[in-house]
Design brief:
The chain has helices at about 155-160, 345-350, 455-460; strands at about 1-5, 10, 20, 25-30, 55, 60-65, 65-70, 80, 85-90, 95, 105, 115-120, 125, 135-140, 145-150, 165, 175-190, 190-205, 210, 230, 290, 305, 310-315, 325-330, 335-340, 350-355, 360-365, 365-370, 375, 385-390, 400, 425, 440-445, 445-450, 460-465. By secondary structure, it is mainly beta.
Amino acid sequence: VGVDAQGNLYAGLSSNTLSLISSFDTTTIMGTGTAGSVIAVNTAATVGNTGQMVFLSDGTIVIADNTRNNIRVGTPIPSLKNPGKQIVVFDQLLTFDNAALEGLGIQSNGYPEPLSITLTVTKGVFSLSQTTGLTFTTGDGTNDITMTFTGSMANINAALTGLVYNFDEVTYSAINSDTLTISTPYTVGGVTSTITQVVPIQIVKPPVITPVADKVVNLGTAIPAATFTVTDADTAANALTYTITSSNTALVPNSGLVRTPGTVTGATVAPASAANSLAITAVVGAPDLLATSDTGTSSSDNLTSDTTPTFAVSIGSGSGIQVGDVVAIYNGTTKIGEAIVTAADITAGSIQVTTSALADGNYSNITSSVIFGTTRGAISAPLFPALVIDATAPSANGLPDLNPASDTGSSTTDNVTNDTTPTFNIPLTGTGAVAGDVIQLYNGSTLIGTYTLTAGDITANGASLTTSTL
């Protein structure tokens, strides 16, 4: 193989046909034809047709469909291996580790070593897999935007194999591409030139769905329209697809979800790679204080000394409540307890919720709701009668005093009477008693009368108790 004085490539073959078989390391010219025949190469040709050989101005002959693999006729110069366009997800690392697909490399082609190489990116950083035998004039081989170093062909290729690129998503959140520029200088005839290759890097980003506000919807009513926007830096607006599904088809069937076209129509159903949601919650029953938590003389008056009472909340077999939902008890707008729905709760049709510790007092607005994250669903009817927590034992009251109306006879203060169901006045000052407390009157150890205090008694600091028949 040679070049004549007119710059034509010739081969001593036995035919007028010529094939060029090229790879990164070797290039083979083969064929058959008349010995000494000359095959001319058009020096003005441009790269454009598959299989076309082009004689470039620097003396390099290349194949049109693979410009990185070439042969050089004349003074040796180095060449660079370009793996072509790379694609990486924005939050992942791109590793140039596959020699066939992502490999980077430099070939000396007989050019004197050591060789020099410069690599640069603009929207991230990159690191070499090793730095053995390399001398740096720019950067140090780790998390650099640009680096320049020299070394033997073997050491440079060892460092480039496994090079890792890391896109800077924080700074370039609106950018979806970068380029890795590689260059190596060479000197021929006292003139220094540079060979440059550019590796495009596409940054793949997931679609973005704007937040959708939660909606509280009573069971059986229509869901108000939810407006949202979907954008994707890698996909044209009219090519985006999305799917809308219900996670609880017992509550909201998929057949009930209707898409109203927005600014871009014609969307089809496809797997989603981004997600958002809104909460549709059912109304649960009013809380009911368990009898085991309703202490005192009655198990249904909601007067208790239990400071962490437990309530039963009806979730109904057809309410749409499902396993994993959260049911909470509220005092007004303050959540005071919650429980996660289990399969057993679904079967029973109710769930038990125990509150956090409550102070003594009256709680007139105890309600229940399903919650979604931190969003409260529809509010149930309140507990009735109102909850009263009284865990503080009252101080001893004053001595009972026979009511003058019950003290018959010549004196109204001698406690001699013919009234067989006498009434006594009970002083409450200093006792700490509250409405709902029970006063009991004893004859020795025998109970002869009880009375439940009212708000009026507390205000009057006293109460009247009538005994059973004596």
